[in-house]
Amino acid sequence: MDPAFRGRGVGGRLVRWGMERHGLDRVAVNEQNPQAVGFYRHMGFEVYKRTERDQQGGPYPLLYMRLPGALGEGEAAGSAWPAASTCRM
Fold it and tell me: Pairing between strand 46-51 and 26-30?
């Protein structure tokens, strides 16, 4: 998000739109981005998994976060990570 637009509620509205319209309930967030981690915690997401590397094998630890009650990786029959309801930051 452009710093000039932070704190105006745009990100929150986008996430709520994704949650309401597309079932967004999980995100993968770079642990080295504390603003993103804090934002998703503020939106109600909780960490359920951590990896040392990102999905491309880069040296960027990821926090996999989900909303309370959402199923994580491998918990839903026929689900695969990443799912359509996943956002990566």
Answer: unpaired
Distance CA 63, CA 85 (A): 16
Q: How many CB atoms lie within 10 A of CB 45?
A: 24
- Rounded Cα–Cα distance for residues 30 and 71 (Å): 20
Mean pLDDT score, 50-66: 95
Q: Is the pTM of this model over 0.70?
A: yes
Angle at CA of residue 51, ends 50 and 52, nearest 5°: 130
Helix (H, G, I), strand (E, B) or coil at 27: strand
Q: Count Cβ neighbours within 10 Å for each residue of 68-84 and write b for 16 or more, e otherwise.
A: eebeebeeeeeeeeeee
Residue found under tokens 């996999």: 64
